[in-house]
Every structure is written in C-alpha cells, then in structure tokens.
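Here is one chain, start to finish.
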Amino acid sequence: MTKKDWVMVLLAAIVIAAGYYLYGRDDYKTNKTGMAPETNQQSSGFFIGSIYATIVNYNGSEFSPSSVSIPKGGAVIFRNYSPKNMRVASNPYPSNDGYPVKDGCVGSAFDSCSNIPPKVSWSFNFDMQGTWGYHNNLNPSEGGTVTVQ
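Its structure:
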C-alpha cells in the first residue's frame, strides 16, 4: 500500500469511529435537528461535527439503501463498493437538473460531475427540502431517492 492508501484507510476509520461514538450516545437519540435516527426505517446516520450524514453504498448494480431521509443541511456519502466506476447525478436523465440548485457540470449542483472510481466516495450536502431522485449517470436505470426534511 502506498502512503496515500494508508492515509485514506486512516481517515475512513476515524469517520466510522466518530459516527459510532456519536450515534451510540444517548444525547444523540434525538439530535439537534429533531430527527430520531433510530426510528428512521430508511437509513441510519451519524454526525460529522454538526452535520448529519448518512451513507449510501453502490455495489455495481444498485444503491443501498435506495431511499434515505436526512434533515435540511445534511449530507449523503455515496460509496463505490463496486469494481467499476459510477457517477451520481440528479434525476431526470440526461438533463440531471431535478435538484433546483444550479452550478453543476450539467444541470444541477447535485452531480458528481466525474466518474467515481472503485473504493472512492463522493458526498453532497442538501440545502433544499423535498424528495430528490438520483441515478448512476453511467447506467441510468440504477438510482434512488433522498428525502430532505
């Protein structure tokens, strides 16, 4: 492993440990956003500082969980656990402009704008309430939804 690989492994371990520590504490059962993570049947998350985050994994054919709920200002971390690239983008395909905040590479800010290689993650902070569909721009039949409360 290269030094860069070791640094990435260390950072991932720190994020996982921090999430476990914060999510398991009683004072975070109902967090600052008013959400109760343990009652959310779609996803579970953790805090990174004051930002609530949840993880969506890609396995090469689907995203899991395919639907997540987060508070406004929260983040979704899309992790590529497949042997191939993925590219996360807002629905609908091919305009990728369903998320109303612009400044993205095609249609909206909710677009990774480039391929995400295997073993790499990409995250997006959602500042707009609503339900936002997304897809893998390399295979648009693969996707899911993010509900921002």
